Amino acid sequence: MLISPEQEALIDRVFETYLSDHHHNDILQLIEETEDNEDTHRPLVVNAMTLFEANMEIGDYFNAYPTDVLAIFDKVLNRKAKAVTDDGSLKHNEGQRKQDQRLVHTLHARITG
User: Fold this and answer.
1) What pLDDT is recorded for position 35?
2) What pTM was estimated for this model as a whole?
3) Reduced to 3 states, what is the DSSP secondary structure of residue 73?
């Protein structure tokens, strides 16, 4: 990866804030849809203009290192989804704990615009 740890931390922080501000309900919906079908990978569509307005440097990194930045976005998205689940925004019983852990590998950020 050509992105430095400091750049990765910035991307992580900006994207996590963006998800909280713009996609909290979308994440809840994706989690619920994933529960209905364990074997699917679900995209979260992210508007590039809105995201990059928050921090133009992120846009520069995305243009220079798209694969690396998307990997960071996916990591942040899945961590956020797990946090939403752990916070009790969704009601889960003990039998669903394994499914919650599996969720980490099923959500993906997709950039449009």
Assistant:
1) 64
2) 0.80
3) helix
